[in-house]
Amino acid sequence: MPNPHVPSTLLTRHGEALDFFGERVHAVRPDQWDAPTPCTDWSVRDLVNHLTVEQLWVAPLVRERRTSEEVGDAFAGDVLGDDPIAVWDRAAAESRAAFLEQGAMDRTVHLSFGPTPVPAYCSQMVSDLVVHAWDLSRAIGADERLPRDLVDFAVREVTPYADSLSGTGLFAAPVKAPADADEQTKLLAMVGREA
Length: 195
Known about the structure:
Radius of gyration: 16 Å
Distance between the termini: 38 Å
CATH architecture: Up-down Bundle
């Protein structure tokens, strides 16, 4: 049962983001796993692996209350094996269950950059899923339109630290969005993508 002090919208958005990205994973054709993505050095497989690994981290950090140092390199490299879709599905289900667990949203996780409240960690995960769902959609030729609720959530999450993202080395520098840009275009521009 979700914590009554945490807006249920956070857990709702997390489930929606997992489902939306998962729909795109299920749409990847066998001949598309090596295709390029908007993430400069990543193929479709690399991108799906990245998001799968992110989900695999959730249970050890949230449910087991282990630190990132204790988990170490357990999820290093390619975790997708011979059945990437099935591995994604399992990782997504485990992530979802860990965040929904009684008391989970009251906890603090210990990430590489320090202690972080679980709701903040979950919010970051939602935004990453949303942005990378667009990347995956573009890479495989799927509909690139993101659900409005997820876009609005990600814009609110990313805006406060958008200017520092490129400094992490994980995001391209922001690009200028047209004056009449919609929210999705603004979100993508903040994370260095041109729609």
